[in-house]
Design goal:
Distance between the termini: 53 Å
Shape: flat
Order of helices and strands: HHHHHHHH
Largest sheet: none
Structural class: mainly alpha
Strand content: under 5%
Number of strands: 0
Helix content: over 70%
Radius of gyration: 21 Å
Length: 215
């Protein structure tokens, strides 16, 4: 019993790191993804081409490779000091998920009919006013399902932080496994399932709140 409590508390400490990676990634990557989506729809061809190329490269390469590149790259290429491990992980995750979110945002924005923009202009609204007062909530409704899938995937992707020895929950469990104690590795599923269950309930609630948009 004492062993179970000790392992549970150590896994909980690891899960705090997991949650830190998760929430900081969301906090930064969501607005960055929105900015990238605007840039990828820009009328400036050069900007649009550059951003679409970056998004294509990031989405086409494994997140694990990006984590390794961000952590080891500056030191190997420029003899710069290594970034703190947690900083490198969050930076890699932000870049990766901002690119994925940008494509979801872009699809949602482009799905809104031009008639709604034109109607707003007739009413004397600026483009910014039209976006925030007319378009934004409809976009949120349309992208909520794919966005929720990406966010739940992010929960599980945090386990990739262990490749550069960040002590998230799965790294803690692997350390136990290296000592011959296997069950903590499977016990981590409880933490993930509870958190994903909470997120699933939250997204279900948001979908119901936005049901007045029939899109």
């Amino acid at each position: 019993m004492n062993e179970f409590i000790e392992v549970s508390l150590n896994l909980l400490n690891g899960f705090k790191i997991t949650l830190s990676i998760f929430f900081l990634t969301l906090l930064i990557s969501l607005p960055l993804g929105l900015l990238l989506s605007f840039g990828s729809m820009s009328k400036i061809k050069a900007l649009r081409s550059v951003l679409k190329t970056i998004i294509w490269i990031v989405r086409g390469t494994p997140l694990m490779l990006l984590v390794i590149a961000v952590y080891y790259g500056p030191a190997l290429l420029f003899q710069a000091p290594f970034l703190p491990r947690i900083t490198a992980v969050i930076a890699a995750f932000v870049v990766n998920y901002a690119c994925y979110f940008s494509e979801i945002f872009r699809g949602g924005i482009e799905s809104i009919s031009k008639g709604q923009y034109e109607a707003g202009q007739v009413l004397g609204m600026s483009r910014v006013q039209i976006f925030f007062r007319v378009v934004l909530l409809q976009v949120v409704k349309r992208i909520l399902a794919p966005m929720s899938n990406e966010i739940i995937t992010l929960v599980k992707d945090t386990a990739l932080a262990r490749v550069i020895m960040v002590a998230e929950i799965l790294k803690v469990a692997y350390d136990y496994a290296a000592e011959g104690l296997i069950w903590p590795l499977f016990y981590t599923a409880v933490y993930y399932l509870i958190f994903v269950g909470i997120l699933t309930l939250l997204f279900g609630f948001l979908e119901k709140k936005l049901n007045y948009f029939r899109v």
